[in-house]
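Morning - S-adenosylmethionine inputs below, output right after.
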Amino acid sequence: MLFRFGGEVTASAARLKEKRFGLAKMELLARDITEYIEAHASPEPDYLRALARETHAKVLMPRMLSGHWQGNVLAGLSRMLRPRRVLEIGTYTGYSAICLAQGLAPGGRLLTVDRNEELAGLVKRYLHLAGLSDRVEPIIGDAMQVLPTLDEVFDLVFIDADKVNYLNYYHLIFDKVRQGGWIIADNVLWSGKVVGDHTDKDTKALQSFNAAVQADQRVFNFILPVRDGLLLACKM
Ligand SMILES: C[S@@+](CC[C@H](N)C(=O)[O-])C[C@H]1O[C@@H](n2cnc3c(N)ncnc32)[C@H](O)[C@@H]1O
């Protein structure tokens, strides 16, 4: 009996070790794959590399910045769509705004909203370095207050602000997106927490957002497992 008990302990310890080792291996693989992907993407322009560096050195929560891989995905999608009007909700230090602006059609404009006025100077400096000051308009304010005041029709909207308001933003902008226009939302996998039984408010908000888009018959939608998950929805 004692021996069997000991055997069970040994077996479960081995399983735990295997699981831990498996997880560590998966993390290493994910890191290696990300490095490989970044090594096979068009290089980050100098001004974006400098912006990422300055954000990491001086700004709180630099993980929020899109970064090279996702930045190229956003720039690539925008280059495919050639939008005339883009709306971004959640500027932060401007990395994704600069990427999205790369696909603007001639005469096109991008509006980007953020409530954090402390980053406005840095954003403007990098828009200038990227040669986009005349095409990207930062708006300082709470997106819940700003969005209802926008009287424009958008070809592309990028949602990347507070997670609890994702569904509110979706509802607020839906009628302002043209037919055939796209809504992209970042972080919809929330480090994988959306598939677990996590009960924190951000996970629950993202689960509700993903479910609402999935149930919305007015859109064609899918999720790309890029970084923390990008949801794409085309208004039909
Ligand atoms: C994840 S960061 C955006 C990252 C950026 N799009 C990028 O990829 O580089 C989220 C930003 O949303 C802003 N934000 C959060 N809640 C907001 C609100 N209610 N209205 C406007 N901005 C908000 C924060 O100040 C923060 O700068």
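Note: The chain has two domains: 1-40, 46-235.

O.
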